[in-house]
Amino acid sequence: MEQPRTFVIRRAFVVPMGLLIVLTVALLVVCLLQGQPLAKVVILAGLIIPMAVLFVESAFRRLVIDTQEVTAYRPFRQRRIRFADVTSLETVRVRNRVFMTLVAGDDDFLILSNSYGDFPALLTCLIKSVPEGAVTDETEQLAKHPPLRQADIFTAWFAVIALAYILLAQFRA
Fold this sequence. Notes:
Blueprint: E1 5-8, H1 11-33, H2 38-59, E2 62-65, E3 69-74, E4 77-82, E5 86-94, E6 97-104, E7 108-113, H3 119-129, H4 137-144, H5 151-172
Antiparallel strand pairs: 1-2, 2-3, 3-4, 5-6, 6-7
Helix pairs in contact: 1-2, 1-5
């Protein structure tokens, strides 16, 4: 691997999350202008905060793999693991959700999921980069047929459609 590879959370998930926040803020403004009950306003305001945190965390998370190390960038923090120090690359699969643990030493680890775009390439890059013998059998089997996770994308777009319908219904009220 000559050039560093960068992997980000799938934009097919990040985009509807952004739209969901915009629609929720619009609904909050409409509720305030229409003098809706305080409980409705508080609930909407309370929903915006965790959605915004999830959006920022997802939009700015990235993974950079070069010849020497893997670096996970998250808002306000980063974690780096050198491939030479890796003792194990393990995976846990729960239905179509995959969690990989890159372990270096006794207390240094990095947990990744298949939320990243081009997950098969990510998995292949990691397997090729870690020392021989560090990859578990489960991880090698998973690399042959990596699962694609689409449920979170479907759920996010469903929420956008549902909130757009609620917003339209609020205008009719």
